[in-house]
Design goal:
By secondary structure, the protein is of the alpha/beta class. The protein contains 28 helices and 38 strands. The longest helix is centred in the N-terminal third of the chain and has 16 residues.
Length: 835
């Protein structure tokens, strides 16, 4: 027989499994778990564990007295309410103990140790173990110490506090102990009534706040009873951490509503299995069966409380804790197989297996690592797709059906050998100021919002995100999710729709990546962990050290330190990948850093760095060319005498024109003899005027461009999103994708206008100036080489005829091979629930 609940080590031995594999329904803790914020309180308290705590937790007594409008002299805290129960038979002058049973076994045990005569008052099974107060009155004798659990343990029945108060008031010669260890679950307490001299109310913080490992409870009684208990209590029963936790929890609001609903659903399901379930107002249920369920359930690695050692009960009674919905379904399914396998299986809504990559900061490598795991799973035969619920980036991509998503998700789709799909990135935020962004929802722009406006829509957008995820995941075997920023950004957690809340919805384990190249990666791991709530830490599977240079064996001590501090392992060390050829996550780290050994015929390419640069990866293909050196330029002084000037895309053209003027670049570009190329926003900058009458990108309705090409642009509310191609005057084709609000039209006949098959203006060319709305034109190896050769020809240099391949297929395979070599995919698949 199992003597008590919560002994997970012993229960696991009986079940023949590891403790971590045991689903324990034998201990009654709130299924909502530890309250948010408590971990941080305990973490901070570690700084104060050297000095002795208050001998009798006087600060806690004062706070509890304020909460219940009492005096400190009426309250005593202890190491759980069990310690206080042990003091009562010795502190109170009584002739015998009368215990309502079945009830908490420690009542009788404490009386036995105090050598106090003990009498049981059994409640009747035929009355569903409901306490009959009239019958109890007949058994009460003057000088008794009466123990009543309300709700009682193990049944959970509740007796009206009004009726109990009348009973206590009617017997002043008897001391009543009302144990309210589980009262918070039903929302009724004797503390709402006047405190009587012959009443002791026991309160446990262990059960309701799920802090069995801290141990904290308190007694409320007359000053005389508390004084007598205090004389017997050893000092320092309440340690510093428990005291600080109690101070925090006494200020918490009741949160029993959700538990009540889960309990009701569990009762209904148990009854459908033919089980007798007794009424309960607590977070547990007393259940009766013809079978010995406690032993049968251990075969399924599920533990329940065997109630055979409770007076009045036998081995056919078990007590079941109310746990989370998913855990309850696991219990119900095991009971179904034991009792009535012919009944349809309980529907357990399991999501598709998933893995999520989060980071300790932006640009920790989440996007690239997500692509790596996508390709690994594809190689292993899984139908896999990427997902990022919310992406803030100016680097976007147009899907085949004309929707706009983050460029990173397009790369991840390619890693899965899929066409990009708007469901892979349902929310794309494209910043157009320090405090505002354009919202692209399901691939279509819906307007511009400042931070407050966007946050006010988060609840509505969460439903859009989950609908997109459910639709996408329904078509694949598994999903690899990417987070955003860091899950440790405490200012954003309440409105999170992209990190841990998304992982919870997807039922996905989380790998947290950190950039060791920046330094402080292990502090970032531990610091991020410290900001997570208990439910978030359960989702965290382990850490990934990313962008490492050196001998990873030298990191062993650091990895041990992380495990000791968090209980979570470092699951892999990923090397810094030089010249990988995959687009960066966002313009936060934009730059061209490849070392180029320049000679007299190396092309000097100046990429103008705009404040609102968009789709900067348009120019990443140039970096693979051996005869090109790309450098970013932010001021007129830096420009020099380049061979090629590139004006990239912009999310706020008017603002960037103003910046070109203030930085001195405006005049320097106009006077330069270099070849000039403008892409999208860069095209608009090269024109004569930009008109924005509806304020699409700016409050300024008109701006003057560089006037280097004879055309004007007017901003339109509807955004152009499409893949396209166009024939140039020399017969060659350009291909790429359009993402822009502007519509441009020629104002003269002295330049070539490039149009698509429908007559839409796609670009302009005149002499040394080339401008197009097409993103991705330099991805085409032949066009890129031809374009560079035009620059070389104009300089009188030798032409280069060897094509350099710009394709990410080889890069993805290389990356996947490296990541696979550094992590245990078998364990990751197991954690995901994949075969």
């Amino acid at each position: 027989m199992i003597e008590h609940g919560g002994n997970s080590k012993r229960l696991a031995e009986l079940a023949g499994c590891a403790e971590s594999e045991l689903l324990d329904f034998s201990v009654n803790l709130n299924p909502a778990g530890i309250p948010e914020g408590l971990f941080q309180v305990c973490f901070k308290t570690l700084d104060d564990i050297s000095p002795y705590p208050e001998a009798h937790a006087d600060t806690l007594r004062k706070l509890a007295a304020e909460k219940w409008e009492l005096r400190s002299e009426n309250i005593l805290f202890g190491n759980g309410s069990t310690e206080l129960i042990s003091l009562l038979p010795r502190a109170i002058n009584c002739k015998r103990a009368l215990i309502v049973t079945p009830g908490y076994l420690e009542y009788a045990e404490s009386c036995r140790k105090a050598e106090l005569e003990t009498v049981m008052f059994p409640v009747k099974e035929e009355d569903d173990f409901k306490l009959d107060l009239d019958a109890l009155k007949n058994d009460i004798m003057p000088g008794d110490l009466v123990f009543i659990g309300n709700p009682c343990n193990p049944v959970g029945t509740y007796t009206s506090v009004d009726e109990l108060h009348k009973l206590v008031a009617a017997h002043p010669e008897v001391v009543f102990v009302i144990d309210e260890a589980f009262a918070d679950f039903c929302g009724h307490t004797m503390l709402s009534m006047p405190l009587l001299d012959n009443l002791v109310i026991l309160r446990s913080m262990t059960k309701y706040y799920a802090i069995a490992g801290i141990r904290l409870g308190y007694a409320v009684a007359s000053a005389q009873i508390i004084s007598d208990m205090l004389e017997l209590q050893d000092p320092w029963s309440v340690g510093t951490i428990a005291a600080r936790a109690g101070e925090f929890l006494l200020k918490r609001d009741n949160r029993s509503g959700e538990t009540r609903k889960i309990r009701e659903d569990l009762v209904s399901a148990l009854q459908k299995l033919g089980l007798k379930v007794y009424p309960s107002e607590a977070d547990y249920l007393l259940v009766k069966s013809d079978k010995l369920l406690s032993k049968e359930l251990l075969k399924y690695r599920i533990a329940v409380r065997d109630c055979s050692n409770y007076p009045g009960l036998n081995e056919h009674f078990i007590r079941i804790a109310v746990r989370t919905k998913d855990e309850n379904i696991q219990l119900l399914e095991a009971l179904r197989q034991i009792l009535c396998p012919q009944v349809p299986a309980f529907a357990q809504k399991r999501k598709r297996p998933a893995l999520m990559l989060q980071g300790t900061c932006s640009n920790a490598g989440k996007s690239v690592l997500t692509a790596a795991f996508c390709r690994i799973m594809l190689q292993d035969g899984y139908a896999v797709a990427p997902f990022k619920s919310q992406n803030m980036a100016l680097n976007s991509y147009v899907t085949p059906d004309g929707c706009e998503i983050g460029r990173a998700q397009a790369v991840q789709a390619e890693a899965c050998r899929l066409d990009p799909d708007a469901r892979m990135n349902p929310i794309l935020l494209k910043p157009n100021s320090d405090t505002g962004s354009q919202l692209v929802l399901h691939g279509k722009p819906t307007g511009h919002y400042n931070v407050k406006e966007y946050f006010s829509r988060k609840k509505e957008l969460w439903h859009e995100v989950t609908a997109a995820y459910d639709s996408l995941s329904g078509e694949f075997e598994c999903i690899v999710l990417e987070g955003a920023g860091s899950p440790g950004e405490v200012n954003l957690k309440s409105s999170d729709i992209v990190n841990m809340r998304m992982a919870q919805y997807a039922q996905s384990p989380v790998l947290l990546a950190g950039d060791i190249d920046r330094g402080g990666v292990y502090a970032s791991f531990i610091g991020t962990y410290a900001t997570l709530e208990p439910w978030e830490r359960e989702l965290l599977y382990g850490f990934l050290v990313n962008k490492f240079r050196g001998d990873s064996s030298l990191l062993a001590d650091a990895h041990d330190y992380v495990v000791n501090m968090t209980g979570k392992p470092v699951v892999g060390v990923i090397d810094y990948q030089h010249d990988l050829g995959l687009p960066e996550e966002d313009s936060v780290s934009f730059g061209f850093t490849r070392e180029v050994v320049r000679d007299s015929q190396t092309l000097d390419v100046a990429l103008i760095y705009l404040d609102h640069i968009a789709n900067f990866t348009d120019f990443a293909p140039l970096e693979i060319e051996s005869d090109v050196k790309v450098r970013t330029v932010s001021s007129g002084q830096e420009l020099g005498e380049p061979d090629l000037i590139i004006l990239p895309g912009s999310k706020s053209v008017v603002a960037d024109i103003a910046k070109l003027r203030s930085s001195g670049l405006f005049d320097r570009i106009k006077s330069s003899n270099a070849r000039i190329a403008g892409i999208c926003g860069g095209l608009q900058i090269l024109g004569q005027r930009l008109l924005d009458p509806e304020g699409i990108e700016s409050s300024n309705q008109e701006a003057t461009g560089l006037c280097m090409l004879p055309f004007e642009t007017i901003m339109r509310k509807d955004k152009t999103l499409r893949r396209n191609q166009v024939r140039r005057g020399d017969g060659t084709f350009l291909s790429g994708y359009e993402i822009h609000h502007g519509e441009s039209y020629a104002t003269g006949n002295d330049c070539e206008v490039m149009r698509d098959d429908q007559g839409n203006v796609i670009g302009f060319e005149q002499g040394r100036i080339f401008a197009t709305y097409l993103h991705g034109v330099f991805d085409d190896d032949q066009f890129r080489r031809d374009f560079l050769n035009e620059v070389r020809k104009n300089k009188g240099w030798e032409l280069k005829n060897t094509l350099t391949e710009y394709g990410i297929e080889n890069a993805l395979n290389f990356l996947a091979e490296h990541v696979r070599s550094r992590v245990n995919m078998k364990q990751i698949y197991k954690r995901m629930g994949l075969r």
